[in-house]
Amino acid sequence: MSNPSLLILPGDGIGPEVMAEVSKIIDWFGAKRGLKFDVSEDLVGGCAYDKHGTPLHDDTMAKAQEVDAVLLGAVGGPKYDVLDFSVKPERGLLRLRKEMDLYANLRPAQCFDALADFSSLKKDVVAGLDIMIVRELTSGVYFGEPRGIFEEGNERVGINTQRYTESEIDRVARSAFELAMKRGKKLCSMEKANVMESGILWREVVTEVGKDYPEVELSHMYADAGAMQLTRWPKQFDVIVTDNLFGDLLSDLAAMLTGSLGMLPSASLGAPMENGRPKALYEPVHGSAPDIAGQGKANPIACILSFAMALRYSFDKGDEAARVEEAVNAVLADGLRTADLLGEEGVQPVSTSEMGDAIVAKL
Ligand code: ATP
Ligand code: MG
């Protein structure tokens, strides 16, 4: 059997710096665990524009469609601000998401013990927290028609339309149930079925899909109550599935329960491929951070945890993903901090590569 394939797109700014640390981890798995990947590397964003005059070359796009998973660093930077909209670095990322049809956006909120003190919430509320928000990413009020600003009588009216088809709800619900099966087998669906027709349909379809996953305990919650419960006692949740707009709000809220931008991974999943694995793109939530690029200051953990998500959700290696997460936990417990994580006085920050090396050593 051939090795699982991975396309690495480091991108711009701190992207290549944090990705170099992920490469160390990939090498470690190949050498020590016999877990080898067919890794190819390519350009996306500003660096692709510099070479090809486009932020994503067609060959790169084709490669992304073929591999088992794509791992991306970050794109963009001030150098490219002057470019025409059609060739801006971000367009490369948008094209990947659109052509791979990545409709389920996964954002975990996970609390590492050593950082529990930094949360704005009480320590016992966040300690040990490990939840996942699944946000529908390609439909809903951000895309529904009609939309626009129209004349109505003697004033203007701004209109957006919340619109979901059964199949759009069905496919993102399936992604969420599949995740729940790989995690704590608990799924909470959030909408506003009390005031929105799309919410009524959402609840109906999710309930119907749930019949295919009898092992998963399904519950429903209004999204406003969900926001309240997320800040009151987030550990009651395992996986949450919700629409594009509510997911936008709830995933930011959940992420900030625990931490710094430098710690947050994400995944975007699409339809299952022939081998049963979903199309997948993994990336840190943070951007290219031009203010610290090239200085060895970037925190590589968000990108490393994105690779851990790939291990768990694309390659069925949940144990190895947990190994990476435990190694991260261990270096933090030892007191290692990149500059973005500094809170205590008198602690000297470590560099990007020192953090990466320390995590590899803990593996
Ligand atoms: P984008 O539009 O690409 O998301 P942005 O400017 O909104 O870019 P980031 O590039 O994520 O956001 O940077 C926001 C701030 O967080 C910056 O000050 C940056 O230095 C800091 N930051 C982001 N990622 C990291 C990281 N991995 N390690 C340390 N600091 C980071
Ligand atoms: Mg940003």
Automatic annotation (TrEMBL):
Keywords: Amino-acid biosynthesis, Branched-chain amino acid biosynthesis, Cytoplasm, Leucine biosynthesis, Magnesium, Manganese, Metal-binding, NAD, Oxidoreductase. SMART domains: Iso_dh. GO terms for cellular component: cytosol. Binds 1 Mg(2+) or Mn(2+) ion per subunit. One of its GO terms (biological process) is L-leucine biosynthetic process. Substrate binds at R97, R107, R135, D224. NCBIfam families: leuB. PANTHER family: 3-ISOPROPYLMALATE DEHYDROGENASE (PTHR42979). Belongs to the isocitrate and isopropylmalate dehydrogenases family. LeuB type 1 subfamily. This is 3-isopropylmalate dehydrogenase. The gene is leuB.
